[in-house]
Amino acid sequence: MIGADPEASGPDAAEAVGMPLPPSVQAGPMAHAIFRVARLHRMLAGQLLRRVGLHPGQELVMMQLWDLGPQRQIDLVRLLGSDAATMTRTVKRLEHAGFVRRRPSPTDKRATIIEPTEASLALRHQVDEVWAELEECTAGQLPKERQAEAVRILEQIEAGLVLAATRHAQHEPGGQAASPTGQAPQG
């Protein structure tokens, strides 16, 4: 969506698809395509999640808690490839909405346990429906075999980006910065 408002939808957004790349991004057509797709995907996710009172990323925290049960906040950071400050803000907002509860860890005084509340359980079905709709909007135009192929390609791209980010983090001042997966790089 070149030069278009990322919050736009409708005919203007549709017309932007397939426009020629500006000279400034021709050196990276795949990177530019990923940027455009990620921006549109996040915008649509935001629109769909607003229906249930969530913002993008909050549903991922809730999904982890529903699937895995109560987690230390630091484990949520690692599971979602987030950073501590972002997770703290997300958990505070979810707690304020009544979807999670924080409590001290019984085994580690430094850790906080995050658990889903009963109120969040009613939200689970709605989040599942939002994700199903987002998936249909994202991949519904592709035949099933092409969907599976696209997922494999995206996994390969992700693996390559993780390796590159880890290499770059190791060369930054201070050495062993965390990788995008939240894990310390293996040196």
List the main descriptive attributes of the protein structure presented here:
187 residues; mainly alpha; 7 helices; 6% strand; disordered N terminus; disordered C terminus
What does this structure look like?
It is built from seven helices and three strands. The protein has 187 residues and is mostly helical. A hairpin with a 7-residue loop joins β2 and β3 (112-116). α2 packs across α6. The radius of gyration is 19 Å and the shape is globular. Mean pLDDT is 84; it is low at 1-11 and 182-187.
- Please tally the β strands and state the result: 3
Biggest sheet, in brief?
3 strands, antiparallel
- Report the portion of residues in β strands: 5-15%
Helix count?
7
Helicity level, as a percent range? 55-70%
The N- to C-terminal Cα distance equals 39 Å
Mean pLDDT: 84
Poorly predicted tracts of residues = 1-11, 182-187
The topology string of helices and strands comes to HHHEHHEEHH
- Helix-and-strand structural type: mainly alpha
Rg, alpha carbons: 19 Å
**Main sheet: strand order:** 1-3-2
Overall geometry comes to: globular
